[in-house]
Amino acid sequence: MKKLLSVLVLALGSLSFAAHAADAGCDAKATEKKLAGAAKTSFMKKCEADSAADAAKATCETQAGEKKLAGAAKNSFVKKCSADAKAAAKEDAKKTASAACETQAGDKKLAGAAKNSFVKKCVADATK
Fold first, then answer.
1. pLDDT digits 0-9 by tens, 5-50
2. Per-residue confidence (pLDDT) for residue 99, from 0 to 100
3. Which UniProt keywords apply (predicted)?
4. What angle separates helix 37-66 from helix 71-107, to the nearest 10 degrees?
5. What is the DSSP string of 16-33?
6. Which of 69, 59, 48 has its CA nearest to residue 13?
7. How many domains does the chain have?
8. Which residue among 39, 56, 82, 127 has its CA within the 20 to 30 Å range from the CA of 111?
9. Is the pTM above the cut of 0.70?
10. C-alpha to C-alpha distance for 69 and 64, rounded to whole angstroms
C-alpha cells in the first residue's frame, strides 16, 4: 500500500513537471498558429490536458514495465493508472483553486452565504 501511494505521489509530481514543460511547448504552438483571445485559451487548455494525459500514460507504462506486466493485464493497469492520475490531478487542481478562491473571498471581506456562493462559483469557473 505504501509503495502504491509513493508511486502515485511520484506520478503526480511528474505530471506537475510535465505540465510546466508542456506549458512552454503549448504556448509556442499557440504563437506559431497565431492564436489570440478565446481561441488561444481554448487551445492552451486542450494542449495542456493532452500533455498531462500523455505524461501520465508514459509514467503508467513505465510502472507496468517495472511490474513486468504484459498484454491485457498491462493495458488494464495502464488504463486504471491513467484514470487515477487524472482524478488525482483534478482533485489537486480543485484544492488549489479552492484555496485561491478562499483568499479572494477574504480579500473582498465576504462572509456567510455570500462567501460560500462566491467560493463555489469561483472554484467551478477555475476548474472548467
1. 454 455 555 544 444 455 788 989 999 999 889 898 889 988 988 8
2. 93
3. Signal
4. 140
5. HHHHHHHHHHHHHHHHHT
6. 59
7. 1
8. 127
9. no
10. 5
**43, 42, 2, 52: which is closest to 22 by C-alpha?**
52
Closest by Cα among 102, 106, 98 to 127: 98
More reliable by pLDDT, 122 or 16: 122
d(CA 71, CA 60) in angstroms, rounded, equals 14
User: What whole-number distance in Å separates Cα of residue 79 and Cα of residue 56?
Assistant: 10
Q: How deeply is 7 buried, as exposed, middle or buried, from its count of CB atoms within 10 A (0-12, 13-18, 19+)?
A: middle
Of the candidates 20, 21, 44, the residue with the CA atom closest to the CA atom of residue 32:
44
List, for residues 35-89, the tens digit of each pLDDT value: 889 898 889 988 988 888 899 999 999 999 999 999 999 999 999 999 999 899 8
Domain that holds residue 25: 2-126
